[in-house]
Amino acid sequence: MNWPQKLARILQTEACVVVTLNLILGSAPRESGSRLLVTSDEVFGSIGGGNLEFTAIRQARELLQAQDAPYQESRPFGLGPKLNQCCGGAVTLNFELLSSCPGWVSALANGLDQQEPMVLAMETGSAKPIRLAIGKKQAESPEAPAGVWRAATRLLEGVHPTGEASDKESSVTVLENDDQNWWIELAGKDLQPLILFGAGHVGQEVVRLLERLPFEVTWVDSRKDYLPESGGEKIHPVFTQDPVSEVATAAPNSVFVVMTHSHELDENLCLEILQREDFAWLGLIGSKTKHRRFLQRLNKRGISEEKLARLVCPIGLVGIRGKQPATIALSLVAQLMMEQPWTNENN
Questions:
Q1: In CA terms, which of 19, 77, 85, 239 is 20 to 30 Å from 277?
Q2: CATH classification of 192-343, choosing from 3.30.1330.30, 3.90.1150.10, 1.10.1790.10, 3.40.50.720?
Q3: Residue 261 pLDDT more than 50?
Q4: With a threshold of 0.70, does the pTM exceed it?
Q5: Reduced 3-state DSSP string for the chain
Q6: What is the per-residue pLDDT across 96-126, written as a single tens digit (0 to 9) for each?
Q7: What confidence tens digit (pLDDT) does each residue in 13-41 have?
Q8: 135-181 pLDDT tens trace
């Protein structure tokens, strides 16, 4: 769940302070646009931990106690001796108290619920800053200067407002328009679809890691007792007697991980996945011997050598050794996060 969706749910029942890591000078523990959602007894998100985050949470709760009406202000923080942190940089945190759900939060949340890319455009330099939720299908708003709207539109198209391809790690752009300062960002990054076949010991450990990372996981097994009834917001258990049928329903550019209890099922899954033209990555648990045998068998079943080259087996980083389930899971997830094959334009 992205922060606009979480914020919309919180505001249905209670007030919340949105703490945004804004301006950064020098070294900082998180990137611009990182957020904390702070209520009287809950915290969602992170701006980097440490004393900066501890102080921000305390100040946000003080604001909740002191104010009833919507309110916002920016506060500078030096990341040095005063906060007992050694980053050495400085940041500005924006504190925004919301007592009910404004239209821009609802619009962002609804758009993301529909899996539509959304941009948040914020005018940050005035006492009553403007907040605009901008989607691809939305008509131009008179509140946004033409340059801001144009920049937001380019960002929705995956192009940086300067004309370069956008960097997924830095989705924030600061624009100066006349006497106004605008902050434009993608509101919530898309979760990478991953289909995990197998709920054995290794599969269980893989899911424990993936649920903390930006993945939307479909977790498939033919053994009902191995799957939980509910996997939370990002983990979707699927019990089926025909796991192979789940391959066709996967989204384009999905990551596939195959680690079932049956070599025959593993082979049939790989066959079905390799016949797709639009998958991002296919990893198969096993040894080099299993890999070699699967290549021979799948080639006999009509899979070309070019397609077989995309079958990754063994899985995981070479430098992480060990056969314990948690070690294998760590190695696999580290490989995915390091290589990020879903960003490869050749897939």
A1: 239
A2: 3.40.50.720
A3: yes
A4: no
A5: CCHHHHHHHHCCCCCEEEEEEEEEECCCCCCCCCEEEECCCCEEECCCCHHHHHHHHHHHHHHHHHCCCCEEEEEEEECCHHHCCCCCCEEEEEEEEECCCCHHHHHHHHHHHCCCCEEEEEECCCCCCCEEEEECCCCCCCCCCHHHHHHHHHHHCCECCCCCECCCCCCEEEEEECCEEEEEEECCCCCEEEEEECCCHHHHHHHHHHCCCCEEEEEEECCHHHCCCCCCCCEEEEECCCHHHHCCCCCCCCEEEECCCCHHHHHHHHHHHHCCCCCCEEEECCCHHHHHHHHHHHHHCCCCHHHHCCEECCCCCCCCCCCCHHHHHHHHHHHHHHHCHHHCCCC
A6: 999 999 999 999 998 888 778 888 888 866 6
A7: 999 999 988 766 656 656 777 889 999 99
A8: 876 666 777 777 788 888 887 876 655 554 444 444 567 776 666 77
